[in-house]
Amino acid sequence: MPKTIAILYICTGSYRVFWPGFYENFRQNFLPELDKTFFVFTDAAQVAGEDNPDVRRIPQKALPWPYSTLQRFDAFLSQEAALAGYDYLFFANANLFCTGPVHAEEILPDAGRSLTAVCHLPYDGRNPLFHPYERRPASWAGIPYNGGTYYVAGGLNGGTAAAYLALCRELQARTREDLDRGIIARFHDESQLNRLVAEWPRRFRVLPPCFCVPEETPLPNGGDRIRVLQKSRFLDAEAVKGAPKPQNFFERKWEAFTLNWLPYLWRARDTLLRRRVTPRAATSGWQTGNYPGGEGDG
Questions:
Q1: Is residue 278 part of a domain?
Q2: Whose CA is closest to 61, among 6, 11, 9, 7?
Q3: In sequence order, what DSSP letters do the residues of the chain get, joined into one string?
Q4: Residue 298 counted as domain residue
Q5: What is the rounded CA–CA span in Å between residue 57 and residue 40?
Q6: Which CATH number is 195's domain given?
Q7: What's the pLDDT at 296?
Q8: Is this prediction's pTM over 0.85?
Q9: Could you tell me if 58 and 27 are in contact, meaning their C-beta atoms sit under 8 angstroms apart?
Q10: Element holding 247 (H helix, E strand)
Q11: Which of 18, 26, 63, 140 could potentially form a cystine with 30 if both were Cys, beta carbons 3.0 to 4.6 Å apart?
Q12: How many domains is the chain partitioned into structurally?
């Protein structure tokens, strides 16, 4: 009997345009060895394929940016009882596209690990000093300039059902505590996930960036395994996230200086202050690793 997996998919507002193509593509190509069910969190009254046994439409209010991404764990945990019955859970961004079959041995957790994340292409192999981590110590997502290894993308991650639900509970708690203090991490749920990977690297299988490649920057020789379709071909992304603020010459120069040179100073400061990425937890289940693959890796 094949293993089971639930694909967690959010498409509210203008992002609903991606669902029909995503469903057809992932249904055929993503982990064909597994028995898949798509949990579609949407404000649409109806979605393509919802009468099929592998689609569950979950009513989800469209939230303003960035809460639509920041609070995704609340949505997932609203279905916790149902999701706990699957072998694996994976979240996928609305605009992902498999270029061919992606098999279990390529992407599922392995070697005693219980979770999977994917390196973000622009930062693969780059000095962590220049990763776009959240840097404020007051945030749960904060990583000092002398910490971190990987920078993972927020668009594709998953794991065993028990481990991924524990991750959702942990990141939900961290995000809520930040919001209660008026803090929104730099890149929202992605920043929170990166802190978790930095704290507990042995829980994660970190995949190469070929599993989350922006359409506009393809890998040479057709190396893309999963592509991130360019949103601007389908919708007005600025209408969702807001247009970037124009910068004058001096603002552009200052930004370049803060990105390329100031990190060396901040690393020296964090080293002198003995700041570290120390494993911690907002929930007891995550701290204890009380699920298969989570034990003893603090």
A1: yes
A2: 11
A3: ---EEEEEEEE-GGGGGGHHHHHHHHHHHB-TTSEEEEEEEES-S--TTTTSTTEEEEE-PPPPTTHHHHTHHHHHHTTHHHHTTSSEEEEE-TTEEESS-B-HHHHS--TT--EEEEB-GGGTTS-GGGS-----TTSTT---TT--S--B-SSEEEEEHHHHHHHHHHHHHHHHHHHHTT---TTHHHHHHHHHHHH-GGGEEEE-GGGSEETTSPPGGG--SEEE--GGGTS-HHHHH-PPPP--HHHHHHHHHHHHTHHHHHHHHHHHTT-------SSHHHHHT-STT-TT--
A4: no
A5: 5
A6: 3.90.550.10
A7: 45
A8: yes
A9: no
A10: none
A11: 26
A12: 1
- Both structure tokens of 125: 């192999």
User: Is a pLDDT exceeding 90 seen at residue 112?
Assistant: no
What length is written for the chain? 298
Instruction: Report whether 86 contacts 80 (CB < 8 A).
Output: no
66-94: pLDDT as tens digits: 999 999 999 999 999 999 999 999 999 99
* SS3 state at 55: strand
What are the structure tokens assigned to 182, written together? 């008026």
- The answer for residues whose C-beta is within 8 angstroms of residue 230's C-beta and 6 or more apart is 95, 214, 215, 216
Which residues make beta-bridge pairs with 207?
118
DSSP class per residue in 79-116: THHHHTTSSEEEEE-TTEEESS-B-HHHHS--TT--EE
Look up residue 44 and give its DSSP letter: -
Give the mean pLDDT of 287-296: 64
Strand partners, 130: none
Range of the domain at 213: 4-288
CA 44 – CA 220 distance, rounded (Å): 38
Q: Which amino acid is at 256?
A: A
Does the residue 47 lie in any domain?
A: yes
φ/ψ region of 124 (left if φ > 0, alpha if ψ in -120 to 50, else beta) reads beta
* C-beta of residue 267 within 8 angstroms of C-beta of residue 146: yes
Single-letter code of the amino acid located at 199: E
